[in-house]
Specification:
single chain, alpha/beta, Rossmann fold, five-stranded parallel sheet, three-stranded antiparallel sheet, 8 strands, 49% helix, 16% strand, globular, binds 2'-deoxycytidine-5'-monophosphate
């Protein structure tokens, strides 16, 4: 049977991971959260007390970093491993969120993680979400989806998720962080978030998760024919 790669790119906090996970489960494919890999590198940088703005210092410590995924037996989801340590929870903190876009701007970091991601998708059968998956990582992906929603809708959803997890943060802080990340992700020199003509646009500001899934699954089935 034909196997394809599906690239899902788009703005922060618009549910790319949720959709990618659903598609991967339905198709029996591997889901890979590329943002988690940038977050894991960022966590290493912060723990090592390296300034995320110091590109040379960050590039220098890359050989010390090993990023991988492991299936969590409790949740059935894949968690990110940083040098063998499960850091899935720690990479979701606001501290990491505040620095990750800076780290993701560094070309050496991108080259390092893109090479890993390309290896993971070499045999097809991967759904990967991120910012540059359809443009840089898998330019030949058979299906490319660009997801977005208004900043307010995304910040509200993200805030509710964080609050439910017990995080002490405000909607305003979440919105400000998200807008800043959008700006850095879209304006950086190396592999900025861009929607090229071969993407299908999915704006989920006003549609349900089920509707979104139905639309995307339709595209996937078409790409599989
Ligand atoms: O998807 P996320 O919010 O977990 O991503 C965290 C950051 O990593 C985001 O600010 C942009 C960066 N990123 C990237 O530059 N390229 C990717 N393929 C994935 C994430």
């Amino acid at each position: 049977m034909k196997r394809i790669n599906i690239a899902i790119d788009g703005h922060s906090s618009c549910g790319k991971g949720t959709l990618a996970r659903q598609l991967a489960a339905a198709l029996g494919y591997k889901f890979i959260d590329s943002g988690a890999m940038y977050r894991a590198v960022t966590l290493f940088v912060l723990r090592a007390n390296i300034n995320p703005l110091d590109a040379n210092a960050v590039a220098e410590i890359l050989p010390q970093i090993h990023v991988d995924f492991v299936v969590n037996a409790e949740t059935g989801r894949s968690d990110v491993l940083l040098n063998g340590e499960n850091v899935e929870k720690e990479i979701r903190t606001l501290a990491v969120a505040a620095s990750v876009s800076q780290v993701a701007k560094i070309s050496e970091v991108r080259r390092f993680l893109v090479a890993l991601q390309q290896k993971m998708g070499a045999d097809k059968g991967v759904v990967m979400d991120g910012r540059d998956i359809g443009t840089v990582v898998f330019p030949d992906a058979e299906l490319k989806i660009f997801m977005t929603a208004t900043p307010e809708v995304r910040a509200r959803r993200r805030f509710e998720e964080l609050a439910a997890g017990g995080a002490d943060t405000s909607y305003e802080d979440v919105l400000a962080n998200l807008k800043q990340r959008d700006l850095i992700d879209s304006s950086r020199a190396d592999s900025p978030l861009t929607m090229t003509g071969d993407y299908k646009l999915l704006d989920n500001s006003n549609i349900s998760r089920d509707e979104q899934y139905a639309i995307a699954m339709g595209w996937a089935q078409h790409a599989l024919q």
